[in-house]
Automatic annotation (TrEMBL):
CDD domains: HP_PGM_like (cd07067). SUPFAM superfamilies: Phosphoglycerate mutase-like (SSF53254). It comes from the Bacteria. This is Histidine phosphatase family protein.
């Protein structure tokens, strides 16, 4: 098979559930770790991927992503790499709560950040997320060429890069992102070109109902969009 026709698969995984009882939008803050359920999710996906031809595992530098990627690398007998381009999107509301009716959006002082949802005005521009995520995916593809790679990242950057590849608009309703905790968004390359995108949820039965895509908000249970 020529280099231009070989297939390489890059699985982009969202990390597992985080211990976050206060419902903080933790963004890029340090010391937010997987909950016990989150560790179960990570182990489940590691088991699911065990038979695959994975030769490269790489993660966002944030704790929750590193802890999700570690069992995958261990099962595959690989060292875990880190790529800063896989990090969560920047957000001015980082460190604040987003419960229904009782969070940061209730404060008029924060409304000035909401004037342009198309950019978005409250955080890292969507286009910048696309650029860095495409760079991270291409690097993973090159590292695993002819085999498979796993990249552990975060909900918003994963959804944005998928939307770009599938030629959808980048601005969107966060409640409708198809990127559940511990899910896999899979990009298949033929040579250097993405030829298909797939999506699976190996740990769906472990995900609390209010955190599934399209679930109605529940008072006191923050969804931490983009986490």
């Amino acid at each position: 098979m020529s280099a231009g026709s070989e297939l390489t698969v890059v699985h982009v995984m969202r990390h597992g559930e985080v211990e976050n009882p206060e419902g903080i939008l933790y963004g890029r803050l340090p010391d937010y770790h997987l909950s016990e359920l989150g560790r179960q999710m990570a182990d489940r996906v590691a088991e699911h991927l065990a038979p695959r031809d994975i030769t490269h595992v790489v993660s966002s530098p944030l704790d929750r992503a590193q802890e999700t990627a570690t069992p995958i690398a261990k099962v595959q007998g690989l060292d875990l790499a880190t790529d800063g381009r896989l990090i969560e999107a920047g957000n001015v509301f980082e460190g604040k709560t987003f419960g229904v009716g009782d969070g940061a959006l209730k404060n008029p002082e924060n409304w000035k950040h909401l004037f342009n949802p198309f950019k978005p005005s409250w955080g890292e521009p969507y286009v910048e997320q696309v650029v860095r995520m495409m760079g991270a995916l291409d690097a993973a593809k090159d590292a695993a060429r002819g085999h498979e790679a796993v990249c552990v990242s975060h909900q918003l950057p994963i959804w944005i890069v998928r939307s770009f590849v599938e030629k959808r608009r980048l601005w969107h309703d966060p409640r409708k992102r198809q990127c559940t905790l511990a899910s896999l968004t899979t990009f298949t390359y033929r040579g250097d070109k993405i030829v298909s995108v797939g999506y699976t949820e190996p740990a769906r039965d472990l995900v609390p109902a209010h955190l599934l895509a399209g679930a109605k908000p529940v008072k006191g249970k923050a969804k931490a969009f983009g986490a």
